[in-house]
């Protein structure tokens, strides 16, 4: 059996990307104004698949010789949490998404950049560990 798992990673990348697009373009607009619980579930599911896309991209694009630092993941988690708190603060100050949706652009960008950094960093680290184990 071949030990090259790159084709499987490409399949995982394509399917995770497809699921992310379907969730963000289909389910979130369907539930957003009316059902807060289902909107939250759809967002979390979309965030997980979005992070998985960057995890796979990190595994496919990296070939580290030594174990990479997890500083990028720390920055990603911090950016994600700060952006999430900023969005919650906007909502608590009365700027609800139904009233002023544009106010949530900056927190949304921060959330997605943070998740991308987290997924990328974990993917690079996993690829490095696999290379070390293979030797």
TrEMBL record:
Parts of the chain that traverse the membrane: 7-30, 36-57, 77-95, 101-120
Keywords linked to the UniProt accession: Membrane, Transmembrane, Transmembrane helix
Protein name: Uncharacterized protein
Superkingdom, taxonomy of origin: Archaea
